[in-house]
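This entry is retained here.
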Amino acid sequence: MVKYSQKLKKYVLAKDIVIPAGTEIGHAANRVERFVPFGEAVIGFNKDMCGDFTMPLDEMLEIGLVKELD
């Protein structure tokens, strides 16, 4: 659990993420409970709509998808 007094590390994408046209979109879970630290990026699609991308931070670091900011 993250304490409010802790300074959180910052990460940036190290690779492009491409979601091809035709990718099937399913219904998201109504409730999500996570047991490991997750990273999230909010993605703007136009001026009125956005979505988000989430993935376990340790896995993103392992595959080189993100890197820690100095």
Observations:
- Residues 19 and 25 are 11 Å apart (CA to CA).
